[in-house]
Amino acid sequence: MFRAVLLLLIAFASPALATNAVQNPHTRVELIAESAAPAPGKTAALAIVMTPEKGWHTYWKNPGSAGMETQAAWTLPEGVAASAIRYPVPSTFTVSGIMNYVFEGESALLVDLAVPGLAPGTPLPVKVRVDYLVCDDELCVPESADLALDLRAGDGAADPAAAPRFEKARAALPRPVDWPARHARADGRFRLSVDTTGAGDISRAYFFPEADGVLDYDAPQAVSRDGDTLVIETAAGANADPGEVTGVLRLDRADGSHFGASLKADAGEVAAAGAPLAPGGHDRHQAGLPSALTALALAVLGGFILNVMPCVFPILGLKALSLANGGHSEAAARREALAYTAGVVGTCVALGAAILALRAAGAQVGWAFQLQDPRVIFLLLLLVTAIALNLAGLFEISAPRIGGDALAARGGTQGAFWTGALAAVVATPCTGPFMGLALGAAILLPPALGLLIFAGLGLGLALPFILIGFIPALRNRLPRPGPWMVTFRRIMALPMFATAVALAWVLGRQAGVSGMSLGLAAAVFLAAGLWWVGIRQHGGRPAAVPLAVAALSVAAVLLITPRAEAPVANAALPDIEPFTEARLAALRAEGPVFVYFTADWCITCKVNENGALSAPAVTAAFADAGIRTLVGDWTNADPAITRFLESRGRAGVPLYLFYARGKDAEVLPQLLSESLMLDLARRA
Questions:
Q1: Pairs from 252-259 (Cβ < 8 Å, separation ≥ 24)
Q2: Which pTM does this prediction carry?
Q3: Measuring CA to CA, which residue among 590, 649, 586, 300 is closest to residue 466?
């Protein structure tokens, strides 16, 4: 008896309602309970309340052509289970022709908590991690919130303070209806008819399918009505046989109110169209991110400019050597150009697909993400070393064709293809003008459009060789074959050796001195093996055995381990600090701030850091103007920096931002000049 009374006292003494809330940069997220004392053996309602700041939005369970469904990972007491999220009726939001299903303003995502039979007063700690995407007219930012509630088993009495919010949340849910509904697909069109008897005076309607592939999100929905029968027609989606179609039919009434009906439609005969209604949804156009076509054009242009960036130059030399080799027929020149293009485009698309797949799995990655792994740097170090030694004439490889000579000097479609693939891989540490915005859009657009933009980047990179392959007048301007080609090939070995040195330095930054030493030792072992290969080849003997010995150097990759932290990369600017969003906010309140994001493997970044960002005149001008500098080092994966880059519509580094006193960020070009930096100091 005493124990029961004590438990009851504990139950009544517990807080009436324990809530937890997180204020993220763009969204406030709360976890609230309808009752702080859920009744054993029954369900209790919880709500994840998301309130994005004005102008921003979160996403429905089917986000539409872009976006991401909110994810909730629960940590619950044994025997307690959480239901799937029940979403309110969404709204439409069109971004550059891309349809999104969203929530603007506060939205409550309801979850039912099943409580087993427990003694009164039993603690029920509830934790949840909420991952979601929040976007505005210009940017999308992935955010997370860890929330917790301390509940106790009790009488299930509702908390009066929470009751109005749950009442409002339930009113916003779509209503289950028994309206007969049919859908049909023919000639690329999806048609849906619904008997809306009792729905009242409907002025507009829009159908939100729950499953992907039912209809083309971006196509407009034509709505008509004949009596109580509503017919919606639009372009069909990729799923040729969606079976039973479920979704929410949003209906706007003439008095301005609206409600959502939760529908199930079987395949069947659809009624004829009636009198047209106004189309549902609303259109808004995103100004900050480019449209898909614009992003594609920027990607092609950025890829074309990438040809003159320092990290691509050695590969250009290889291909130039092949083209200068002469003797190509018109058909052979076109085949090589197409094969080279296929290699570049295929590699760019493969990298893009990997980025999108990893992001879909929850990883925070961007362009050149693979270079954040020292094992990839190690393998690139060995590859570049082998190519450099090949160009220097140490050895020849005819099969398999992985060396520079086979790739370029001997030509052929196979060599051209792998030269293109190599060019794309080596180009990843570089970004040029127009690339940042294009790749930033690529990771936010639907996957098919994103891959198209990555393909556009490859097309731009391959464009010079397409022109040379298909325009004889350009090809005829290339130098004729001669002894100079041997010298040219040897010269091309020098930038490749320089690239190997740069990769060894990056390996040291990522894996420490021991990692760099291991990489150099493996490179020396590889060189010795390839030297043996060359000796055998010069003697006309098989080189399979020494080649296999040289390949053993790759095994050292198993010993490469990332270092916990990489030191922040600095230019010579004064008052440099590591970047955090909190520090940025604090410094902006004090005066002008220059922020840049870099990585040790980013060649463009290093060019800027050792050039404009370290010029004595710039350093002095920044000091005189009181400009503080924050550096975000992305050498190793850093989700916080990745999220900030994405918030600026970028998928990689470099990114340079200047905050003049009391003003918003000014995005600077990716190639900085001393005059540009001095101008910033004058305007600070």
A1: 252/202, 252/203, 252/204, 252/205, 252/280, 253/200, 253/201, 253/202, 253/203, 254/201, 254/202, 254/203, 255/201, 258/89, 259/89, 259/174, 259/175
A2: 0.51
A3: 300
